[in-house]
Structure formats: structure tokens, C-alpha cells
Write the C-alpha cells for this entry.
Amino acid sequence: MANLEQAFDQFLSIHMEYAAHSILSNSDEYKQLISECNDTFVELVSLLPQECKLILQNYDTSTTLLQCIAETLMYKQGLKDGMNLNKLSGESRR
């Protein structure tokens, strides 16, 4: 069972990476917002004293990792919900 879960997690990772590159890279709204976020972060880092820069970078890394976890959990739940809906619709056709 562990091998199946590991294979599924690898599939999710590859699929989510594909979605991020193929879907988000075509979104003008996403590209503009990510550019604004990056510009703001660079500006903020440039204004901070050296000892605060590392703290901010660690915070940014932590919030990014939290977002990745949240996206993965929601994606997994969406797959489960989709499979349950598919199963229910198959049962209603009988």
C-alpha cells in the first residue's frame, strides 16, 4: 500500500507541476500578480537590515510551503470527490 501511495503522490506532483506551468503561465492575471509580489518582496528585502533579511526569507519559504501543502490537500480532496461523484452517477444509471 505504501508503494501505491508513493506512486500516487509522485503522480500528483508531476500533474500539479504541469498544471502550474501550462495553466498559470497562460494567465495574464497570474503573471501580473506574481510580478507585483516579486517586485514588492525584492523592494522590502532591499530596505531591511541584513539580520532581518534572513527572517523574511525564512517566513516567505514557510508560507510558500504551507500553500503547497494546502493546494495538494485540496487537489487530493477534489480527486476523491470527483471519484465519488463518478461512482454515484454510475450507480444512478443502473
The mean pLDDT is 87.
